[in-house]
Amino acid sequence: MKTKNVILTVIFTIMVVGFSKAQTLSEKQKMEDFEYLYQTLKDNYPYFGVLEREQGIKWLDYKTDFENAVKATKNDKEFFKIISQILRSLHSGHADLMPTMKRKMFIATYKNMSRKKWLETLNKGDDYWAELYGFKDVAINNKEDIPYDSSLLNCFIIDTNNIAVIKVQSFSTFQMENDIKRIKLFLKKVESYPHLIIDIQDNGGGNSRYWSQYFVPLLTSKNIIYKSHYAIRNSEFIKSYFEDIEWEKESFESIRKMPNLPTELNKKDFFYISGVDTVFRGKFNSFSGKVYLLVNHKVFSSAEGFAVFCKDTKWAKVVGETTAGDGVGIDPVIAILPNSKMLFRFPGEMGLNPDGSSNEEMNTIPDMEVKARTNEERLYKFAKTINPDIKYIYHDIPSILNYCKAEVLIYPTNESSEILNTKIKKYIDRINSKFFRTPDSLYIADTTALKMDLKGYNITCYGSVNGNLWTKKYIKELPIEITSEYIKTIDNIKGDKLRLITSWFAPQSEGFYVRFYTAQRSEEILGINSINHGMTNYVISNEKNKPLEYGNYIYQKGKYAIEVSEH
C-alpha cells in the first residue's frame, strides 16, 4: 500500500539519523511511553474514520511498525523525533508535541482561560526537552511580550462609496487589541458603504474571541445565537476535559437525524454534546451594508470557526474556496507520557457541521465558489461580481513573501559588462533551477520578454535598473525613484550600492503581479536573494544586505504613495 510505504520510509529515515546526546531513557521506559500514547489515542481520538477515508490510513494497524521504530532509537532525541512523527502521521494540524516545547507559554495562556484540566496536565511536565534542543520557552504574560505586527491587518477601499475590504491574516490574541482599534476607525469611514468584504484567506486561526467578542459585534445590530454539536469518544479521560465547560448532553437519537453524519458515529463509542453561544451586538454599530467572508483552502482552526458561524447563521455570505476545516470545538486536549514527561496534544472532539458532517473532513464549502490562482486574484474576481466595472484592486499588492510563485523569470542582457552579464545569468540559472522550474514556467531574456505578450503571467525579474531592459521599461510605474546616488521613497536613502526588492502589479495583466530584484549597479544583483525581506511590499538594503527601509504602497487621492513600515 502506497500510504504505508510513505509512513515507513519517513520513520526509517528518522531511525537512522544519529545524535550525540547520551541516552537517558531506557528501552523499557520508551516502550511504556509509546504504549501510553497509542492507548490514549486509541480510546480518545475521534478522527480515525476520517483519516481512513481521506488518506487511506488505518492508523491503529501500524502499531508494530511504530514499536519497531521506537525500539530502534538510540537516544532521547531520536525518541522525541519518532514520537513527533507518529503524531504527525495522524494528519491533523492539532496533533503534535508543541506543549512540550512551549509549556510555559501554554500555562500562561490557559491561566487566563480557566482551563483546569489543561493546567493540571501541563504542570506535570518539565523543561528537559526544550533545554535538550536549546529552545527558549518563555511564558507570555503580557501583550507587550509579543510585538504588534501591523502588516497582518489591511483595511482599504477598492470601489469608492461602494466596496470596502478588511483583510485579516491572523486571529492572534496579541493582534486583537490594536487590530480592533484600527478596524473601528476604518468602519467609521465606510459606515455608509453597501458592501464589506472580510478577507481571511490564509488565516490559520488564533483566538476565536477575536471575531466572536470583538469583530462581529462591530458589524451586527442584533444578538446572534448559534448552536454547535460535537461528538467525543465515550471515555472518562476525554470527558474530564469538558467538566469545566458549559455543555448540554445530546442523545444519539437526536444527533442521528442529521443527514450527513459520519458512519463511525454510534451510541456505544461516542458521547454527544452541544453548546450554545451568543455574539452580542456592539454598542456603537452603524454599519448596515452586506457582509461577505472571503476564504481559501488555508483557513483553519478558529478562522474556520468564523467561516462555520457565518454560513450557519447566514450573518455573512461565504465566498471563495473550500476551507481547511477543524474549526468547530475547543482547544486540543493535552496528555503527558509517564516516563519522558513529553506533553502531546490532539483534537478531543469531532466538531459537526449543521448537516452533521465532520468539519475536519468536509470543511466549509462556500456559498459561492471563486476560482483563482492567487488570493489577490480571488478578491479581485469576487469584487467584480459586485461591480463589473472595477479595474484594479488598489492597495492590495501582495507582500514580497506572499507573492505567488513566478511563471515567468526574466534575466538581464544589458548589464555594465559582458562578464557581469555572464555571472548574473549563472546566478539566476541556479535560482531558476532551485525555485522556479516547472513544466509551464518560462525562463527568458529581457529582450525576449519585451517582444512577448505576458498577459496572464506572474513575473519575477532580476537585473539592475539599466541592466534589465524589461525592468528599465516598467519599474518607472513604481512610486520609488532610483538614481545612481540615492533611492527615494518618502525621503532620499543615500548610497551608490543600494538594492531593492519589491512587488508590484504586472503591467499587462489585472490580478497578476511582478517582483523586481534590482539595484543601482550590476554588481549588487549577485547575492541579492540574501536580503531579509518580510511582509511588506518593498525592502531597500545596502551592498551587505543590511535592510535600510521596509514599506508598503497605499492608494491615496488617485495614485500610489509610500507607507514606510520601518527604517
What do these coordinates show?
The protein is of the alpha/beta class. The chain has 3 domains: 2-120 and 126-132, no CATH class; 150-335 and 350-386, 2-enoyl-CoA Hydratase, Chain A, domain 1 (Alpha-Beta Complex), CATH 3.90.226.10; 408-566, Chitobiase, domain 2, CATH 3.30.379. It is built from 19 helices and 23 strands. The strands form 5 sheets. It has an 8-stranded mixed sheet with strand order 14-13-15-20-19-21-22-23. The protein has a 6-stranded mixed sheet with strand order 1-2-3-7-8-12, with helices on both faces. The protein has a 4-stranded antiparallel sheet with strand order 5-6-4-11. A hairpin with a 2-residue loop joins β22 (547-556) and β23 (559-566). α1 packs parallel to α4 (63-71) and α2 (27-44) runs antiparallel to α4.
Any key phrases for this structure?
567 residues, alpha/beta, 2-enoyl-CoA Hydratase, Chain A, domain 1, Chitobiase, domain 2, 8-stranded mixed beta sheet, 23 strands, disordered N terminus
